[in-house]
Amino acid sequence: METNLVLQNVLTPPVLFFFLGIVAVVLRSDLEIPAPLPKLFSLYLLLAIGFKGGMELESSGLGGQVLPTVGSAIIMSLVIPLICFVILRLKLDVFNSAAIAAAYGSISAVTFITAESFLESQNIPFDGFMVAALALMESPAIIVGLILVKIAGTKNRRPDSRPMKWRTILRESVLNGSVYLLLGSLLIGFLTAAHNPSGVEKMQPFTGKLFYGAECFFLLDMGIVAAQRLPGLRKAGSFLIFFAVLIPLFNALLGIAVAKALVLGPGNALLFAVLCASASYLAVPAAMRMTVPEAKASYYISTTLGLTFPFNIVIGIPLYMGLVNTFIPS
User: Fold this and answer.
1) Eight-class DSSP state of 106
2) In degrees, to the nearest 5, what angle opens at C-alpha 184 toward C-alphas 180 and 186?
3) What is the Cα–Cα distance from 75 to 202, expressed in whole angstroms?
4) d(Cα 160, Cα 63) in Å, to the nearest integer?
5) Residue 272 CA from chain centroid, whole number
6) For the chain, which terminal residue's Cβ has fewer other Cβ atoms within 10 angstroms, N or C?
């Protein structure tokens, strides 16, 4: 790994604001962000990347690498949770294994956004259609996790557990707020770019110039939340701590191998690897808390948010870029 790449990644405003949030918790500062604001900024970031992705998708079209890349991304979101489940079952029960596997099969939009910022800082081009892959990778992992519980854990479910109704599960997986907004913004960006170019110009100050500042503010809050989750790692134990660091590396290598087979350029290859290596700490925990109460939330939230997320945005992204440059030279 090139030390210079790590330094360039760490010394960017979004990552520095992330550390500022962590230090605030460590020093017991009274810094506090009102609860509605992080949610608002999260929705803003999803709207902005969806809209910009739709514009890029209209420009690039659906031919060439678009459909194979998006299809491969969906397959990875089905395969990765199965691999994680097999590994986790070495130490954990079915419910915790399935919930954590689903979290690591899904994606983190903020990690993806940070990777985009990293590529822009390095002047490495990437395509907007990768946003479509981001949107379509979140739900399949939830469905796989629930199928694993259905197959392997039905006999051991708690009496007060809610029965799994597949129609409800599929609806909530596909229509959860983040996926709905991302796909909707992607479609609106596509249609606006195709039929109303002046609309794109009017949206630019909102989806363009404000984006970087909103990302910094959101990562400040993520730093605070991640630091608050660190004590939960002690309860998770050494097995999950090693898992939370090593599985992103393994999944990133899988992603880079697929990206090489798809003949993606270095920028798209990094984004594909980051999608495979990241883990969900919003949509999947919400779904698992509702449908699999037997799984301990402290396990799948502490590992994804307390360890994997900061690892990916500080060390993982430049490390994966170094691997991409090694295996997929430009």
Assistant:
1) S
2) 120
3) 37
4) 49
5) 11
6) C
- Provide the CA 217 distance to its chain's centre, in angstroms: 18
DSSP 101-153: HHHHHS--HHHHHHHHHHHHHTT----TTHHHHHHHTHHHHHHHHHHHHHHHS
Distance CA 303, CA 322 (A): 25
Q: What is the DSSP letter of 47?
A: H
- Identify the burial level of 175 via C-beta atoms within 10 angstroms of its C-beta, where 0-12 means exposed, 13-18 middle and 19 or more buried: exposed
The three-class DSSP label of residue 12 is: coil
User: What are the two backbone dihedrals, phi and then psi, of residue 158, each rounded to the nearest 5 degrees?
Assistant: -70, 150
φ, ψ (nearest 5 deg) of residue 104: -80, -15
Residue matched to tokens 């990293």: 118
Q: Is 199 exposed, middle or buried (0-12, 13-18, 19+ CB in 10 A)?
A: middle
Question: Can you give 65-96 as a three-state secondary structure string?
Answer: CHHHHHHHHHHHHHHHHHHHHHHHCCCCCHHH
Give how far the C-alpha of residue 213 lies from the chain's centroid of Cα atoms, to the nearest Å.
20
Cβ atoms 330, 265 nearer than 8 A: yes
Residue type for position 310: P
Instruction: List, run by run, the mean pLDDT of 10-residue segments along the chain (330 residues).
Output: 71 86 91 83 84 81 84 94 95 91 89 89 88 81 83 64 64 70 86 89 85 84 82 78 94 96 94 94 72 80 85 92 87
The owner of tokens 């430009």 is 330
The helix (run of H) or strand (run of E) holding residue 15 is helix 13-26
Q: Residue 273: which residues within 8 A CB-CB, separation 6 or more?
A: 252, 253, 255, 256, 259, 320, 323, 324
DSSP string, 143-171: HHHHHHHHHHSGGG--TTSPP--HHHHHH
CB atoms within 10 A of CB 307: 24
What DSSP string runs through 233-289? HHHHHHHHHHHHHHHHHHHHHHHHHHHHHTT--HHHHHHHHHHHH---SSHHHHHHH
